[in-house]
């Protein structure tokens, strides 16, 4: 083990600040480009399915590299990891800004993703090592600013920028921050986390790439291609086989790439289950609300982004507060209250109409975000607190991997539910006698069809929110089984290392 350049109880706020800025910029970039896709399609004359690879490819690289983050964090210093990651991210950002062709832009996004993938696990691991267990709630609450607020701010900021400038401005704005963070790290960042000389198992990397990459890709394209497409179910089947093989392989290794034995800690296993369920339901708001606002109500992308901005601000304000409340009261009370708020607001979203006011949707979305801020980080922190220090890299890697995979599954599931319900409702409306209350008098045949499509899509969106409500009920039930990890628990006990 190398010498750690800090005292045991001295919190390295400077190191955390550098990592915080780098992670925020990297995670912000994950959702930054979504609103700009139409502009990119026009400039490079590519199909929407090809353009979607700018988002899908980014997520795929994250899904492949995040499971390996436990190895990198244990093997190399946080200084070397951060400088390498931020260097790759900055290079990708520069290439994306200057990209003359769509192929170069895709390559640039892949390079960006290879740098950003390690950011969240690295920052989370440093904070677990830096703060004593009784102060981690507040620290991880601040960390929630990166994990929750950055992706939420992405569409809002990009919508405003793209409406007035070229999509390249998105990368031009990010680039100075990433370069400054890189330069500062080169001169000021010191090592804080311990390292161990462990070997990288190449077969585990291969199985991880096939497993998590296959699942992420399959569920990501399911909404567009349909579940019956061989490209969808083929990659999902390959992903399931890959993950099962990966788990079997890890139990046979003395130094596993991803330690699955950490699920023997009950609070970590419970927190992971709740986090997976919340990620599944979270995308109902992130995806369905913009669809409702833009496609059914006719508002612009900027207006849709602004509608979601108060929710992002609420989460930004509440994340540190929820952390302090966690330190005082524990995760159980916070998560139950948060999940109840989440359940009620999600159910209310299942009753949207063609006349629901913009202000009402914005307020409801903000209250939903308030509930979300009381669940994610407290539950995750409580689970990580039960792990011994040597298992932190595996815990953070596992959490981030499960978040990526469950997010992809959730978005695909809810979009599929919406599409199937929309198709069924449209068939019902067009085959039977038309309800005159659904259409404007004097409308042409084309207008009538368009209005019926809107009614059918609204029905599909509402049903998807209803399904999300049922998913949240499952998380709420699990929350009653949360137990607070004692502050004086010996963190070094129950070593997860293979015997």
From TrEMBL:
GO terms for cellular component: plasma membrane. SUPFAM superfamilies: MFS general substrate transporter. Keywords: Cell membrane, Membrane, Transmembrane, Transmembrane helix, Transport. It holds the Pfam family MFS_1. It comes from the Bacteria. The chain crosses the membrane at residues 12-33, 53-73, 80-98, 110-130, 142-161, 167-187, 199-219, 231-248, 268-293, 305-322, 329-347, 353-371, 461-482. It is found in: Cell membrane. Signal peptide: none annotated. It is a multi-pass membrane protein. Residues 15-487 form the Major facilitator superfamily (MFS) profile domain. The keyword Transmembrane applies. Belongs to the major facilitator superfamily. EmrB family. This is MFS transporter. It comes from Ornithinibacillus bavariensis.
